[in-house]
Amino acid sequence: MTKNTVTVTDNATGKSVDFPVRESVHGPSVLEIGSLYKEFGYFTYDPAFTSTASCQSKITYIDGENGVLLHRGYPIEQLAERSSFLEVAHLLVHRTLPKKSNLDEFRATIKKHMLLNQGILNFFNGFHYDAHPMAMLTAVVSSLSAFYHDRIDISDAYHREQIAIRIIAKMASIAAAAYKHMCGHPVVYPSNQLSYCGNLLNMLFSMPTEQYEVNPIAEKALDQLFILHADHEQNASTSTVRMAGSTGTNPFAAIASGCAALWGPSHGGANESVINMLNEIGSVDNIQKYIDKAKDPNDPFRLMGFGHRVYKSFDPRAKIIRQTCHEVLEALGINDAKLELAMRLEEIALQDEYFVERNLYPNVDFYSGLIYKALGIPTQFFTVMFAIGRTPGWVAQWMEMLADPEQRISRPRQTYRGPSQRDYVEEFQRG
Ligand code: CMC
To answer: For residue 179, what are the CA distances in angstroms to 6, 211, 397?
Structure first.
């Protein structure tokens, strides 16, 4: 079979070179330009990587034009309805939907590793009570590397699998410990009797003073939210994990760098910003004012929870979350005026020419905060929840990168626009 090629001609010299096109299973093929510099002496310039595939991957596929999201080929709608978070984690990390016995074993192993070394809990004492939980999460996930370093061989596939289990398990416990630190309450240890999400809820909300029953509606809603967040191919935090991991760094340090990237309001921090924005808007009467602010090129305000780099029709996760949000609030008997406000805001924005022209639709973060809020999770903590959900994706992508013979240390190039070479000027001679 002849491989398709694209011919690049340098008009200055007349030199032409054929570059091979590598086909994708779904979505655009990619032009292999690794030898471009050698052939022409040029780099490509693509700020924010809008047209650059940084890796090949078999994990997740997104069709942004048609609102499609597949994990290992399975549509997100089917996974959200019929699977569970740990089954999806298994799918991402081990490539397959497990048989019942394998899933039971996977679940049991994760539970077994949810307990944190007491030494890790000591780190929390160093944080002020009002430290942002993402700051605590990032720091404490990173400090896991101090507990698991010398005995880790990242070139060994078995070791990588063990790391995946540990980080998925411990992320929930670290998150819950951060929450307890914020509240000034004692840490609650995980229980092998509870599910992953049941454990998380119990570690967050139970107190030594009284009996706590995990609400099955909350448990199910959380499980579905985590499925919807589990992976999203080469987004900013995942690319950060891959880039840090490409240096061969400790995997927990690489995952911590993903937490740091996720925190930003343009990425996972948007769920927190959505609720803050809804609070600021306050009432339906103020919506138009904020829509106008979002449209004003001189105003930095953006409609949080709207727009996406890849989705240009709708975010399939947002569609599911919107429905779940209604169901959860109804099942829990919560009448949240913010839901009404969010729906009206969505309606008005979707009819506005500015948002229509730019293909700006609600994304995963627009409604997720309302569900977290209904479950009693404080706004500052929303991005931590996103991080727990995204952990299987981060670690699966890290594992895939290390196993890929084409991957080397990530090292982008640049186009230098600073001063041209000049001589050092002694201090007394500077103007
Ligand atoms: N409100 C108002 N205008 C917007 C928004 C918004 N939320 N998003 C994009 N635009 C405008 C933007 O100003 C630009 O307009 P113009 O062409 O006139 O300059 C145009 O739409 C294209 O935007 P962009 O910034 O070039 O798009 P991007 O792909 O670089 O950014 C984004 C994507 C998600 C960062 C951006 O849409 C945004 O800031 N949204 C709000 C934050 C948010 O909800 N983030 C969560 C993303 S989904 C979950 C996740 O990844 O974690």
So the answer is: 54, 19, 28
Provide the token pair at 1: 């079979």
Cβ–ligand 1 contact at 235 (below 6 Å): yes
DSSP 139-200: HHHHHHHHHSSTT--TTSHHHHHHHHHHHHHHHHHHHHHHHHHHHT-------TTS-HHHHH
Protein residue whose Cα sits closest to atom 22 of ligand 1: 358
Which atom of ligand 1 is nearest to 235's Cα? Answer: 51
| Cα Rg, the chain, nearest whole Å | 24
Residue nearest to atom 17 of ligand 1 (CA): 358
d(CA 222, CA 238): 21
* CB contact set of 103 (below 8 Å; sequence gap of 6+): 86, 87, 90
- For the annotated catalytic residues, the residue numbers are 308, 365
Mean pLDDT over 131-160 rounds to 95
- CB under 8 Å to 336, separation ≥6 — which residues? 329, 370, 373, 374
User: 303-336 pLDDT, tens per residue?
Assistant: 999 999 999 988 999 999 999 999 999 999 999 8
Measuring CA to CA, which residue among 116, 71, 117 is closest to residue 95? 71
Give the model confidence (pLDDT) of 385-399 as tens digits. 999 999 999 999 999
Quick one: what percent of the chain has pLDDT higher than 90? 96
Q: Could you tell me the pTM of the whole model?
A: 0.95
Residue whose C-alpha is closest to residue 228's, from 118, 81, 99: 81
Is 309's C-beta closer than 6 angstroms to any atom of ligand 1?
yes
Secondary structure (DSSP) of 222-276: HHHHHHHHS--SS-HHHHHHHHHHTTT--HHHHHHHHHHHHTSTTTTTHHHHHHH
**Residue 14 burial by Cβ neighbours in a 10 Å radius (0-12, 13-18, 19+):** exposed
Residue nearest (by alpha carbon) to ligand 1 atom 26: 309
Torsion of CA 317, 177, 185, 211, to 10 degrees: 70
* Beta carbon of 237 within 6 Å of any ligand 1 atom: no
